[in-house]
Amino acid sequence: MHTVFDSRACHLGEGALWHPQRRMLFWFDILGQRLLGRGEGGAYEAQLGEIHSAAAWIDRDHLLLASETGLWRFHIDSRCSVRLAQIEADERATRSNDGRADPWGGFWISTMGKGAEPGAGAIYRYRQGKLARLRAGLTIPNSICFAPDRGHAYFSDTVRRMLWRWSLDGDGWPAGEPVLWKDFAQEGLNPDGAVTDAAGAVWVAHWGAACVNRYGPDGRCLESRRLPVPQPSCPALGEGRLFVTTAQQGLAQDALAAYPLSGQTFDLGAVAHGRQEPAFIP
């Protein structure tokens, strides 16, 4: 089952996040440089002035936003931002991409080349005022999410069609090297955004395949939710439901005519193991 949750079309919808205190879904139109939202109070929109792509909730009034130049504490109602950290601010050829708060109150954020240049991407972690680069040499780093038992993180490189699992220490820092968890190449699937549920399964949006799939901890596909558009980008869990952003980017005019709902945000229905995303702790 799927319904349109919000009909505002995004050229590149991304970064879906459920805010539990506001009972709102927030997401980005990356190339449109805007933050969108919808909840009990209706629709929300903020123009941001540069590319933004990922967020975490801090409290009722604030979000952490990741942009092409850094991380920002953003006041939802006033739309004012205060920069917390610079990330590749002097590198105009890159931008932020996928990101998510970790269970320790930190935030992981990836970067990539604006033209998806090979090897231009990286993954960073920001916690307690410290920014550390965790991984470099990636092209389109995606699927950042965390096991509910805090044992490991996940990330992918979409163009390589691979998703890795990375063991974490007691403070949430990587321990050792990441291990390949799922190779989607044989299935021809492109892993984009991902989120874990309370049972430890991983929901992955597959760009180009019109689906969001749920995988068990062993990598086996447990469930598939279909969409009426080809390019789902980022799932989010909120109050027992599954939401997903989508994109128009790269679709020719005939494809847009065939899939007119492309770029809209969808509610894919109830899930059995929903859980709340952790807050970022400044």
Question: Explain this structure to me?
Answer:
A 4-stranded antiparallel sheet has the order 1-24-23-22, with no helix packed on it. The protein is mostly beta strands and 282 residues long. It contains 1 helix and 24 strands. It has one helix at 253-258; strands spanning 3-6, 13-19, 24-29, 34-39, 42-47, 52-57, 62-67, 70-75, 81-86, 94-101, 107-113, 121-127, 130-138, 141-146, 152-157, 162-167, 179-183, 191-196, 202-206, 211-215, 221-226, 232-238, 241-246, 265-270.
Spell out the key features of this protein.
282 residues, mainly beta, 4-stranded antiparallel β-sheet, 1 helix, 24 strands, 2% helix, 52% strand, globular
The SSE order reads: EEEEEEEEEEEEEEEEEEEEEEEHE
Which structural class do you get from the secondary structure elements? mainly beta
In whole angstroms, how far apart are the ends? 38 Å
Report the helical percentage: under 10%
Could you tell me the radius of gyration in angstroms?
A: 17 Å
General form: globular
Mean pLDDT: 97
What oligomeric state best describes the polypeptide chains here? single chain
Q: What is this entry, summarized?
A:
2% of the residues lie in helices and 52% in strands. With 282 residues, it is mainly β. The protein is globular.
